[in-house]
Write a structure and sequence with these properties.
By secondary structure, the protein is an alpha+beta fold. It contains two helices and four strands. It has helices spanning 2-33, 73-88, and strands at 45-49, 54-57, 62-65, 68-72. Strand 2 and strand 3 form a beta hairpin. The mean pLDDT is 87.
């Protein structure tokens, strides 16, 4: 029974890694495609999050929080390809 739980966790981590790889590679391809005239549609996307970081100054400790996510069509395609690859593994 413990083996089934271990395999389930392993598969979930494999899924997360494959999805992250798909998003990162898709985003990179989208950035490269923005320079090619007939592939500029792949770089169409939006950026959201904290554009300027939030600073929390506690006197002794200064914390800076910031997160910006840029999603384009190529990263969404990479995410979909990652899901397809995961299903066939």
């Amino acid at each position: 029974m413990a083996g089934a739980v271990g395999n389930s966790r392993k598969n979930n981590w494999v899924l997360v890694i494959i999805l992250l790889c798909g998003i990162v590679l898709g985003g990179y391809i989208g950035t490269l495609a923005s320079k090619v005239p007939f592939l500029t549609w792949l770089s169409y996307g939006n950026t959201f999050g904290l554009t300027s970081p939030v600073v929390l100054d506690l006197g002794i400790l200064v914390l800076t929080f910031g997160l910006t996510i840029h999603i384009n069509l190529a990263s969404i395609i990479g995410l979909i390809i990652g899901i397809i690859v995961y299903r066939f593994i």
